Amino acid sequence: MQTFKRELAAAIAAVADVPPETLEGLFSSPPDRSLGDLALPCFPLAKLRKTAPPQIAAELAEADLGVPWVKEVRATGPYLNFRFDRGRFSTAALAELRAAGEEYGRSETGRERTVVIDYSSPNIAKHLAVHHLRSTMLGQAMANLFRAAGYRVVGVNHLGDWGTSFGKLLCAMEHFGEAEGLTARPLAERDDPIATLNSLYTRFHAEMETRPELEEEAREWFRRLETGDPLARARWREIRDLSLARFQRLYDRLGVSFDEVIGESAFEERMGTVVEELEASGLLEESEDAQVVSVGEDVPPFLVRKKDGTTLYGTRDLAAVQQRWETWHFDRCLYVVDAGQGLHFRQLFTVVEKLGWPCADRLEHSAFGVMRMPVDGGWAKGRTRDGRVVLLEEVLDHAVECARRAMEEKGAEVDDPEATAEAVGVGAVIFSDMKARRGKDVNFDLDKIVSFEGETGPYLQYTHVRFCGILRKAAGYSVSEATGQHLDGEADLALLQEVLLFPEVVARAAEEAEPSIVGQYLLGLASSFNAYYAQHRVLDDDPAARGRTTDRLALVDRLRVTFRNGLRWLGIAPLERM
């Protein structure tokens, strides 16, 4: 609708003698379609012209705007309501939709702007758990939507591959590696080397209960790692490589990709420079044998370096900010991290501001709520009843199996049942994270998530399948012959207007870093189409209705493109059969 709003805004601005850009974002649909097809509140005009809104609306209703697709203009109190010439508007609208082609929904809203998105960012030596889904898929959807809105996007996977926990793991390998069979069967030869690393880490903490000296040994191993000890570095590098390979299996399955995969370890040299700048700025203070930066009276200090000289992840985050700014000069840098880390980012952003770095006001914590699993009739954060972390791979496998059973029960006829079940199951899990505002906690109920009914991923995929099925049945028609002039009914116009909103929806979802805006739009559009399809015949064999059938098929084709792109940008596979 943006093209039409822009044209109408220019016409009104010429009559009212105001800048057209002050009007473009004000248009909305009237609460009752009997009032008109589009509405403009005159309150902003009242401020500019020092006149009461109802008077301005009345004056503009009498003006000749010269917009060919506007049939009637009527003042209703402080609002100006527009009634379209159905045939002219629909003809122009369908022409615009078809001109956009298969990439419909893209825009140039973010042209010449760069956004860096830090997402997924797991710790190495651990499995990807179900709680990693939120950062990973929300971040990927944001990256897709920003690209669709014309931004230059840099997706970063900032790995947790440094810190004292690796000192503990290296210490555990030294003490317990033989007991775990690493001599006979090295990590690289194991089906799941991460499970072995988890076992070693768990054993280290258990042994510490009776052998407290292990903690100091672990600190020494991390010091060796930081100072470049060959053995420590070799073992750490193997752990990192094996972890990345394991992560990549799931990333491929989820359709996730990054422009840069970089660990905290990459900022080892830069950290010294950052600490020097903090000292030179007079910000670094001694506190309880550690070096810190005061953030504020109501906020704990930001830890920079421990008493033994080792750095912390906050120091590495500062170094990462500096590197990203120098490399990309971003307009926005988003951290897709759970809301529980809010204090850390408040501290980090304040330190950046105190340092006077020019990117201080461009850093954003795109926080999200926790994912909760069903436990004993209630909900718990990402764990089973016995406290075990739920692995993401297990969840995906279970979702795919549920999808396979549902397809069998419905007697689905597809060329590749396994690939279809994979797309439906994985898509169901992903969409469960896309339909609610990211700040909300998510209750992960897999049975509901994989349902073909209700607000689910399979429901949206099935709606896309329905569009494809209608078009397959229309072999005797060519949508290229459609003119749009027969889309002149109230229901046709309402559906057409809803489709025309898609580029604006994508741009707003990017601007707000909120994929759920697209998810909710698709759910609403699916509901609108299903209601439309229940009441109106799309395929009509009557020769006299050929023009209307062709136009409606063209509208279905544009719905197909809208759904396909919307699903893809949310990270969900748009299927043609299921």
Question: How would you describe the overall organization of this protein?
Answer:
The protein has a 5-stranded parallel β-sheet. Strands 1-3-2 form a 3-stranded antiparallel β-sheet. The protein has a 3-stranded antiparallel β-sheet with strand order 7-8-9. It has 20 helices and 14 strands. The chain has helices spanning 2-16, 43-49, 53-62, 86-100, 132-148, 164-176, 193-208, 213-226, 230-254, 268-280, 313-328, 342-355, 392-410, 417-431, 446-449, 457-473, 490-500, 502-511, 516-535, 546-570; strands at residues 38-41, 70-76, 79-84, 114-118, 152-159, 260-263, 284-287, 290-293, 302-305, 332-335, 363-365, 371-375, 378-381, 442-443. The model has no long low-confidence stretch (mean pLDDT 92). Helix 18 packs antiparallel against helix 19. A hairpin with a 2-residue loop joins strand 12 and strand 13 (378-381). The chain is an alpha/beta fold and 578 residues long. Among the domains are: 2-84, Arginyl tRNA synthetase N-terminal domain (Gyrase A, domain 2), CATH 3.30.1360; 164-250, no CATH class.
Shape assignment? globular
Question: Count of DSSP helices?
Answer: 20
Oligomeric organization of the protein chains: single chain
If strands are numbered along the chain, what order do they take across the biggest sheet? 6-5-4-10-11
**Low-confidence parts:** none
Structural class: alpha/beta
Mean pLDDT: 92
Number of strands: 14
- Major pleated sheet: 5 strands, parallel
The CA-CA distance between the termini, in Å, is 32 Å
Instruction: Determine the fraction of residues in helical runs and give it as a percent range.
Output: 40-55%
**Rg measurement, Å:** 29 Å
